[in-house]
Design goal:
Oligomer: single chain
Radius of gyration: 24 Å
Strand content: 25-35%
Bound molecules: 2-acetamido-2-deoxy-beta-D-glucopyranose
Number of helices: 4
Helix content: under 10%
Largest sheet: 11 strands, mixed
Number of domains: 3
CATH architecture of the largest domain: Sandwich
CATH topology of the largest domain: Jelly Rolls
Number of strands: 27
Shape: elongated
CATH class of the largest domain: Mainly Beta
CATH superfamily of the largest domain: Galactose-binding domain-like
Amino acid sequence: MAWIFGLVFLLLCLSTASKAQMPGFLSLDCGGTEKHTDSLGLLWTPDDQTTLGGTVAISTPEEARMQYRTVRYFPADDNKYCYTLQVQNRTRYLVRATFLYGNFGTSDAYPTFDISLGASYWSTIVISDENTIEVEELIFLATLPTVSVCLSNATTGQPFISTLELRQFNGSLYFTTVETQYFLSLSARINFGAESNYSVRYPDDPFDRIWESDSVRKANYLVDVAPGTEKISTTMPVDVSYGERPPEKVMQTAVVGRNGSLGYRLDLDGFPGFGWAFSYFAEIEDFHSDETRKFKLFIPGMPAISKPTVDVQENAQGRFRLYEPGYYNISLPFVFSFEFKKTNDSSMGPILNALEIYKYLQINFGSKDASIMASLVSQYVQADWAHEGGDPCLPASWSWVQCNSDPQPKIVSINLSGKNLTGDIPLELTKLTGLIDL
Ligand SMILES: *[C@@H]1O[C@H](CO)[C@@H](O)[C@H](O)[C@H]1NC(C)=O
Ligand SMILES: *[C@@H]1O[C@H](CO)[C@@H](O)[C@H](O)[C@H]1NC(C)=O
Ligand SMILES: *[C@@H]1O[C@H](CO)[C@@H](O)[C@H](O)[C@H]1NC(C)=O
Ligand SMILES: *[C@@H]1O[C@H](CO)[C@@H](O)[C@H](O)[C@H]1NC(C)=O
Ligand SMILES: *[C@@H]1O[C@H](CO)[C@@H](O)[C@H](O)[C@H]1NC(C)=O
Ligand SMILES: *[C@@H]1O[C@H](CO)[C@@H](O)[C@H](O)[C@H]1NC(C)=O
Ligand SMILES: *[C@@H]1O[C@H](CO)[C@@H](O)[C@H](O)[C@H]1NC(C)=O
Ligand SMILES: *[C@@H]1O[C@H](CO)[C@@H](O)[C@H](O)[C@H]1NC(C)=O
Ligand SMILES: *[C@@H]1O[C@H](CO)[C@@H](O)[C@H](O)[C@H]1NC(C)=O
């Protein structure tokens, strides 16, 4: 067994050392015009295969990264505007969409619009200032060779997007037994004990998750910190070659509660709801063999949560090794407080290296007619109307299609006039059981 871990470790080292583009990474620079490699070594490609919408440079100078200097924007109408991305079936991915408004438009209203993955609602993007980058992240299991990311439902301003990224996971990372019914939408991913405000991401994280520093100060983010909280760090290697594989750099820093407890309060975007919540621990502090570190989690109002005692060194079977206890399905509030408290028989206070919380988002399986329509449009690859992408009905219907309002909608009418169709009525249309108008 040991040699297998050794081999995996070696592969990880090789792949992070070579700065080549990782397999399974896609980084789209929306509105961009040329390929470029950023300072992290990520290769950005322009989204110029899309002809929808318009492209424009933003007008605020604060952001220097090239992928943020432009956006692609879309009309504020009832249609949806989709990117269709190639994926590998039965593989888990992280998809990240970012939005830097940068005053690109002539509209004086900040945009508000929805983003969806396939037919499933993902999030509402609410822009509230021109220099803040809004980031949405989701983990999903691909069940088809493509996935679509769509913008729709503009309530103010024009929908737009700055970047769209796909990162492929290996093995069983983020496996859940409900992954064919729920996406995981990121709410918090925190690197405790961080030495600067910078996030840790690629190449330190081979999957390019963004681990936010606990030094960053923002409203309702890691406040009410317990007294006696201290940052510690190590340069010793930490074994992170299993579980969710948090990056070693994240596990080499931690906070410890010198006065017996570690506690924080933060707002959880997307909650209240059911979520996936894991803590990442590794014993990285030197202490004498007659000292012990044992602690328990307390969440106000949830006595049932407080049961298991954590002894990192024992649970991880050694020092400098990952231990990641967590909850696959836990009900969490929007204003979330938690505390790790040392047990009475422990000589030392708790430790915490990192934390991740995702909300479960129910997958919407979309229109019953989706596969028939996919087969229809595949015969008209030259035509613009065949490239609207995503589900024919959800979250908004294709511009030439009308759907009923069932949870899994059916197509009730199709308008192909002016679409330059000649010859026979396509066979597919006879399979649309809800069609009443042609
Ligand atoms: C994708 O994988 C699923 C689950 O194994 C399978 O049912 C489906 O047919 C596959 N789809 C394609 C297009 O390969
Ligand atoms: C569009 O957004 C509004 C407000 O954000 C929301 O109430 C409405 O349900 C959304 N419509 C659709 C079709 O998603
Ligand atoms: C994931 O697996 C693929 C194929 O086995 C490998 O090429 C790649 O380097 C792995 N990536 C990471 C981050 O381990
Ligand atoms: C981190 O950012 C905060 C504002 O969010 C600032 O007050 C603080 O000085 C910064 N700290 C470091 C170490 O850069
Ligand atoms: C830690 O606890 C000790 C003893 O209870 C107390 O004197 C000290 O002020 C506390 N430190 C902090 C930072 O609260
Ligand atoms: C989580 O648990 C609740 C209550 O038991 C249940 O209703 C819900 O379906 C579960 N969600 C997931 C994603 O497993
Ligand atoms: C420590 O002991 C006290 C008194 O027996 C008890 O109330 C408290 O819950 C214990 N604390 C922990 C963390 O076990
Ligand atoms: C059908 O589409 C054509 C052109 O795309 C448009 O002129 C016409 O008004 C549409 N008809 C209906 C009933 O929506
Ligand atoms: C309609 O199709 C014909 C033959 O395929 C083509 O020559 C013509 O340019 C098309 N017209 C439009 C408006 O797309």
